[in-house]
Amino acid sequence: MRFVDIIEKKKTGHALTKAEIAYWINGYVNGTIPDYQVSALCMAIYFQGMDDQEIAWLCEAMLYSGDVMDLSKINGHKADKHSTGGVGDKTSLALAPMVAACGGKVAKMSGRGLGHTGGTLDKIESISGFHVSQSEEKFVRQVNEIHLALIGQTQSLVPADKLLYALRDVTATVNSIPLIASSIMSKKLAAGSDTILLDVKFGEGAFMPTPQDAEALAKTMIRIGRHFGKDTRAMISDMNQPLGNAIGNALELKEAIATLQGKGPEDFTTLCLEAGSIMLMQSELADTMDQAKTLLQKSIDSGSALDKLKAMCAYQGGDVTQIEDVSRLPQAKQVVAMRAKTEGYVKELHALQLGNLAMRLGAGRQKKTDTIDHSVGIVLNKKAGDLVHQGDVLAYIHTNHDLDESWIQDFHQAYAFAAKKVEKKPLIEKIIESS
What we know:
Elements: H1 3-11, H2 18-29, H3 35-48, H4 52-63, E1 78-83, H5 91-101, E2 105-110, H6 120-124, H7 136-146, E3 148-152, H8 159-169, H9 177-190, E4 195-202, H10 211-227, E5 231-238, E6 246-247, H11 249-260, H12 266-282, H13 289-301, H14 304-315, H15 321-324, E7 334-339, E8 344-349, H16 351-361, E9 377-380, E10 387-388, E11 393-399, H17 405-413, E12 415-418, E13 428-432
Parallel strand pairs: 1-2, 1-4, 2-3, 4-5
Antiparallel strand pairs: 5-13, 6-9, 7-11, 8-10, 8-12, 9-11
Helix pairs in contact: 1-3, 2-4, 4-9, 4-10, 5-11, 5-12, 5-14, 9-10, 12-13, 16-17
């Protein structure tokens, strides 16, 4: 088998066989197929696409390119959730404890942030001493005992995805549904859970620009999940503006804690209750969405969800007093109020620009080797649909250095105003239970 023939086959729009896909992935992981040939194939896939069978075979080859977690020793349904990423997306930090407090088993493996999107591991590591590296044995024991664990992906899990993603990132082939779907689902399947909930974002702060694109990606991933016998469902949500108010690691953790105390932003709380309800139904802990939402709200009202976050923190070496008193979390040296120069209704709030602004403060990474500052970020005070008067505070900027004029100018350009009232768009576009 010659790899150049596989490139030619896909370039001319033909479907690849299981053997050809396995040859590609195995050869790339073991170093016998070079980057330049794989980048050519990825570009051919970008333009020609793949059918459902090809995508399933690609996901399977990637899945078994490394270790697969064995969670069979965890009693009951193991639930997992994945977001395609966005600005201010701290969902796992509140959602997972809520589901665990209702009896769900949440065995969560997460990643780090890169570019304008934040990473769950970076946010939880705002807590001093919190360890995201655990052996499989400790991971399983923790989920059995407290129903909740949040760890990082090991290097031996889906090595093909790490290689492919790095290559796609520098060859303009990231935004391809077959490649995105197989990347996400190979990692979710390798993590070993029984059920998967996908939160697929659309908008300028997300991979998918439109709801239609997000739905196409969601349905592709659902079909992969079903191919592997996993209960896989999806929700389509809007990322044209940040989720919640906080952007930045410790700031987002504080907002997640506030949400577990019943004091979170309305949009973020709504998303957590909706996602949690689906996860409880997948875990057969509720029969209807209404019943599930009631259980989740009780977990907030009783404090049991917050207790789960504390228990996870204690298990993984974190300083629980930083959850009990959030003023003990990393704090920036300055908090600068950004005031409106005009008045009107907020028409648009550009998530991508705000995410990049937070990264420029030090809250994110431009490259994987960058060190992040957990204390800095942005807390929004006005969002889409809100009425703003001149001089009103648009946001509070948490920073460890003076803001330069270009940063301030770019911040104001992230807001667009209208003279007439703007209707607030629904956060959740659609819930998809089958493909």
